[in-house]
Amino acid sequence: MSLPIWLGIDPGLAILGWAILQAQEDGEPQLIDYGVIETNKKISTPKRLGEIEKDLQGLIQEFHPDGIAVEMPYFSREIKAAGGVIQALGIVNLVSWRDGGVEPIFLHQASWKCHLGNGRATKAEVGEIIQQLFNLKSLPIDDSVDAIAIAYAGLSGLRNNIR
By three-state DSSP, how is residue 82 classified? Predict the structure, then answer.
């Protein structure tokens, strides 16, 4: 029996962070890969969503995740990017199920950050915690950092029961 692989996703239309973790025999997760999917703000939203779809398909085909954890964003009325993020979430849902056969779990930002020990951690603080957890020399402070933490929370069993 193979050990579970989890894909973590920090959704966005301009930048979508992703990370792959795999459980190990000793119970400690191993960071396999991480990165971002960036789309050009100068092209239409449907084309940008198509790019996200294609790149996510590639990740699922390459890594075959057993679970997918996604941050469920919180929107205030002032956030202009909400529409794009919501559409990107739709693509994540579609590709997760259609290409991976996995229904993603959705985690509130505060819950996956609490799982790291600080529900109000900044991106830099999340990066420091992730560097320590996975014994990394360096880590870019971008959306992939959050995706690593989201995958870690999902692999560890954190659930918010968001449907």
Answer: helix
